[in-house]
Amino acid sequence: MRCLAAVLVLTCLALVPQAAFAQTSQTGSSGLPVPRFVSLKSDRVNIRIGPTREHAVGWTYVQAGLPVEIIQEFENWRRIRDWEGKEGWVYHSLLSGRRTALVTPWEADAATPIRATPKSDGVVVAELKSRVLATVDKCDDGWCRIHGKGYDGWIDQTRLFGVYPNETID
After folding, report:
1. Under a CB-based contact definition with an 8 Å cutoff, are residues 128 and 112 in contact?
2. Residue 23's pLDDT is what?
3. Sign of the C-alpha dihedral computed for residues 119, 122, 125 and 128 taken in this order
4. Tell me, what's the pLDDT at 34?
């Protein structure tokens, strides 16, 4: 009877997709934490509806550097989520560990100050519109040092998609 029960359990486990196990893990198959933010490596990245090349392409990103959140791993595939909440699968080699962020993508026509120092009363050196793509240099104490074409300074961490609240980046 025990042997039959063991066979039944193993059969049931074999029917559960491996991806289901990855959702509950805090460390992905890569050995890195899940979830985590990364960026797109290429100007053209196909997002698939499942973790194989046989799965259909759901959409294609056409801008390198966009930040995405890895929310699941399955072998060499990464399930990602963008700032709009869209999710899909991408092959790991199309992602980069380079940290980038979008400035207030959830606010249309917002202007966000970039400051000379990481303080709310710091001198404003630039103002960025929503959805500006920035490279994240470091984050600490609720502020991130970012740069891009024509600007370099500190921004309130809560104004970025691509970093977690109170995340420290060196």
Report:
1. yes
2. 40
3. positive
4. 97
Q: What are the Cα distances from residue 2, in Å, to 9, 16, 44?
A: 11, 22, 53
What is the C-alpha end-to-end distance of the chain, expressed in Å? 57
> Is the distance from CB of 116 to CB of 122 less than 8 angstroms?
yes
pLDDT tens figures, 6-65: 333 333 333 333 333 334 448 888 999 999 999 999 999 999 999 999 999 999 999 999
pTM: 0.83
Q: Whose CA is closest to 32, among 99, 90, 78?
A: 78
In the predicted model, what is the mean pLDDT of the chain?
88
Measured in residues, the chain has a length of 170
Give the three-class secondary structure for 117.
coil
Q: Whose structure tokens read 């072998």?
A: 75
- Cα gap 62→73, rounded to integer Å: 23
Residue entry with tokens 């194989």: 52
Q: Facing residues of 126 across strands?
A: 114
**Amino acid of residue 130:** S
The contacts of residue 83 (CB under 8 Å, 6+ apart) are: 67, 102, 105, 106, 161
Residue range 91-118: mean pLDDT, rounded = 96
Q: For residue 115, how many other CB atoms are within 10 A of its CB?
A: 18
Radius of gyration over every alpha carbon of the chain, rounded to an integer in angstroms: 20
